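INFO batch 0412 | record 1 of 1 | parsing
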Amino acid sequence: MSRDLRLGVNIDHVATVRNARGAGYPDPVRAALVAAQAGADGITAHLREDRRHITDDDIARLSAELSIPLNLEMAATDEMLSIALRHRPHAACIVPEKREELTTEGGLDVAGHYDRMARLVDTLGGAGIRVSLFIEPDARQIEAAVRLGVPVIELHTGLYAEVAGEARAAELRRLMDAAALAAKNGIEVHAGHGLTFDNVAPIAAIRQVRELNIGHFLVGEALFVGLGEAVRTMREAMDAAR
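INFO prediction complete | emitting tokens
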């Protein structure tokens, strides 16, 4: 289905719950299929270096069983590049990764690691994988993404989600300016991190944003209402804001 604003559902933390007991359930692939049936336009999964949630087998199964696009979040390492080339997901979003962090804490420093990013972008793009860079809403990083020729950036909305009042309004303006700058230069804009039913509307209302990637909140909400209902409610909130 073609939509003005797509919803990508991140199923990492279904795997987190599974791995807490070392059991085979809950199955993140089953969660992905439920999310797709409920209206998700794509599935996002982050294969971390330490395999704390999503595993190599999960990526293989998602690649085989999904009928909607798979977005592989990956660190800028040779190991992850090799895995992406093996499975050929629809998209690969390069994200920063630190072993000790609980979750992704910010955007890539694309400008500061330009040569390294150029090699990854060229290799992934040459394999027919749509490359995205997870970055802060910062003009310097967007300008570096433009020079790299990436088709997509994903703006980090974590700070927006954490602050309130005037600080949130200022961060929203920063996100809006970044989205406009990227779109003006021909880059498709995605956004994500920390988005909930309560804070999604202003981000969804940014006209240049074409996709939101949301995971942890939806998995948490699923404990109370089920994953399908959580996805449907988020889809409705995004559509209403648009």
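INFO post-check: The chain has a mean pLDDT of 95.
INFO record closed
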